[in-house]
Every structure is written in structure tokens, then in C-alpha cells.
Design goal:
3 helices, alpha+beta, 57% helix, 2 strands
């Protein structure tokens, strides 16, 4: 979150990816930092996933990540 907020403050398009388990914490942290980063939340947990499962999760999130970065560049 801190890195994303820092990059955004420098005008560098960014977004962060976290699991849905961390939604509340991410929202609170962003508010505390005065930031409004684009967040992409994926299913939880991820630590015990196989490589193939991680590939599926990342493939599912890719379009949203790219859209967030491109939209911010267009602003």
C-alpha cells in the first residue's frame, strides 16, 4: 500500500493486488495514507496454491490490472 501510494503521488500509474481477506485492512490503510489506489482483490488463500492455480488467479486479474494502469495513464 505504501509503495502504491508513493508511486501515485509521483504521477506513476499503479494498482495493488491483494486477496479478499485483506480488503478491510487495505481500505483502512489507504484512508490513513490519504490515498485512493486502485485495488484488485483475488481469492484467498494463495499460499497453498499450485503453480497452475496461481496462473489461473493471475490470468483472471490481468485485464483489471492492465485496465487500471492504462486508465490512469490516460488521465
Amino acid at each position: 500500500m505504501h509503495d502504491t501510494a508513493d508511486l501515485e503521488s509521483r504521477g506513476i500509474p499503479s494498482a495493488f493486488v491483494a486477496t479478499v481477506e485483506f480488503t478491510d485492512g487495505a481500505v483502512r490503510q489507504a484512508k490513513a495514507l490519504g490515498a485512493d489506489p486502485h485495488a484488485i482483490y483475488v481469492e484467498h488463500p494463495i499460499q497453498d496454491r499450485t503453480d497452475a492455480e496461481m496462473q489461473e488467479i493471475s490470468d483472471a486479474a490481468l485485464e483489471e490490472v492492465l485496465a487500471a494502469l492504462v486508465a490512469k495513464q490516460a488521465v
